[in-house]
Amino acid sequence: MAIYNRIPKKQEILPVYAVIVLMIYGWTILKFNYNVTGWLYFLNIGEIFGVFTYSMTVNLLESLLVLLGVIAAGVVLPKKWFGEWFVARGASLSMLVLGLMMYIADQFNTKQYYPSEIIRWSPAILVLIGFVVYFLGRIQRTRTAIEFFADRAIIFLYIAIPVSLISLVAVLIRNIF
Predict the structure, then answer these.
(1) CA angle 28, 97, 92 (to 5 degrees)
(2) Helix, strand, or coil here: 95?
(3) CB neighbour list of residue 108: distance below 8 Å, 6 or more residues apart
(4) Cα separation of 113 and 174, whole Å?
(5) In whole angstroms, how far apart are CA 26 and each of 21, 30, 153?
(6) Which residues, other chains included, contact 17 with Cβ-Cβ below 8 Å and sequence gap of 6+?
């Protein structure tokens, strides 16, 4: 029962999830729009729609997985480190880790340019991110700004969740029939 008490409340989880959705879906839509012009030469609209539905379905699962990781960090770490200001620390953790992942993904241009140096330094960068998240949560103005941003990001959930659920249904229908 002690673990159940350490799980953040819905009002704290929602803004953190909104930040995760904003970053993951924004990155996917940016990359999707970049590739659409090339796809128009060899894919029809139905196939492009299929790519979009698969992307949104993966984003839904990916964002829930990232949220699970943030909640797990909140449950595992001492309450004083993470639980007191879950929204600020969870949102900043999400932004920094997802930003690192986006940077690493952007470095993979071809097989010849494998960013081995970045991959090698990733554990140290993750530890540094942990310290930054902890100290950002201690600064009142930064914490307030992050919470304000996370609270305003909830509006994107009104678009992303229905689009993802419709995409999930489309992917299921496409794979079943």
Answers:
(1) 105
(2) helix
(3) 114, 115
(4) 36
(5) 8, 6, 12
(6) 63, 67, 157
pTM summary value: 0.89
Which is nearest to 151 in space by CA: 40, 7, 4, 11? Answer: 11
24, 66 contact by CB (below 8 A): yes
In angstroms, the CA 143 to CA 167 distance is 35
Give yes or no for a contact between 89 and 137, defined as CB atoms under 8 angstroms apart: yes
Matching residue, tokens 């797990």:
72
Token look-up 């894919």 returns 43
pLDDT band at 43 (very low <50, low <70, confident <90, very high): very high
